[in-house]
Each structure stands twice: as structure tokens, then as C-alpha cells.
Amino acid sequence: MKKLITAADIKNLVVEKKSVIYIDTKTIVTPAAQDEAKENGIEIVMDSASINKESTSSDSLNEVSMYSGVNSNLVSKIVEAVILQLKKNEQPSLIKEIGENGLIQVKGGSVTLETLEDGIKAKEILGLSDSPKMTAGIMELKDKPLHWVTKSDEIKYVLEGVLELTINGQKYTGKQGDVFYIPADTKVTFSSPKQTKFFYVISAK
Fold first, then answer.
1. Of 109, 132, 163, 193, which cross-links 174 as Cys (Cβ 3.0–4.6 Å)?
2. What is the CB-side half-sphere exposure of residue 55 using CA atoms within 13 A?
């Protein structure tokens, strides 16, 4: 299961006076989290075990190429073609307009959810660099539960579908327009019978 590092997680490290966070190849660090880490001098380090594993896989591929007589120029051209195609498929950037009084408007049409894993998509639209006391975003669940422990107070607003929260064995069901407030340090499972999309706000500690 992939792990998501948000700007709120980086902010917590700042509070805890930590300067390094170790991640593995299955960890997703949001752009806002990367900005927050850079601003606060927190180093994001790939776990050595993951690097060694990737290096071993890479070495194996190199050996296969060498012994199969693959032309290095051909490989370079293939890589260039793949990179070009990826650039064509890049998702549009999030559009934010900032007023002189500090107001921030995010254009809804520019919000494209990113796949965290099969059945779970999310997009952080406001990070701690935008709003120091909270982060916000949109998440979508399809036929897959998300097990979570809140590190701080959270609010969920159901945009579409049915959102189910299970806390201490008790299930709470929210429909479009419903709002949930979840206190910090709550072990909760988010799920949906079919599909749901919700807006979330997470306060900073």
C-alpha cells in the first residue's frame, strides 16, 4: 500500500525539530510537501534498502541488454520517445489566484486527482505554504477502503456518492452535502459501497 506524505506531515516534523524524513519507493510526496520541506530545510531521503533494490533491478536490466545485443543508441531513442509521450500526457497545473488581501481562489477545472493506488485518488489543493494553519484537498474512493489515523482535526464534506466512516466498529454514513468532523488521534476507515468523492480540510498541529 502506498504512503502519502503531505505538507501537514512535513509541518509536524518541523514542530518535532526533525531535519530528515526517510521514504521508500512506494511513498508519494505531494508537491506542497516538497515545497514545505525545502522551505524548512527538511531533507527527503530515499531509504537505502529501496535504492539497493532498484539498483539491483537496473543492473539486471543492463545485463539483459548487454547480452541480448541491444543497440545503446536504439535504447536512447526509445527512452526519449517515452519521455516525450509522458510530457504530452502530463496533467494540467493547479491554477491558484491570490488576492492582495491573502485570499486564494483555486480554479475547480484545474483540479485533477492523482492516483495513489487502485481505487484511491486524491489531490492536495491547499498546502501549509498557502494556508499555514490547515491543508485541503479532494479525495475519491472506489470499492476500496482507506485506513487512517488522524494526526489532527479533520473535516470531510461529501461532494458525491456515499462516504462511510467506521470508528471503533461503528459505521457512520454520509451522503452528498453531509459534513463530518473527526477529532485528532482517531482511528478511522473510509469506504464507499460504490464510489464517493469528498473535500477534506486538515488542521495543522
1. 163
2. 7
Integer Cα distance of 124 and 131 in angstroms: 12
DSSP 102: S
Q: Identify whether residues 72 and 135 lie together within a single domain.
A: no
Q: Are strands 163-167 and 179-182 parallel, antiparallel or unpaired?
A: unpaired
The C-alpha angle with vertex 36 and arms to 34 and 41, in degrees rounded to 5, equals: 95
Sign of the torsion angle spanned by Cα atoms 104, 108, 111, 117: positive
How many domains does the structure of the chain reveal? 2
Rounded Cα–Cα distance for residues 199 and 160 (Å): 10
Domain span at residue 142 reads 95-203
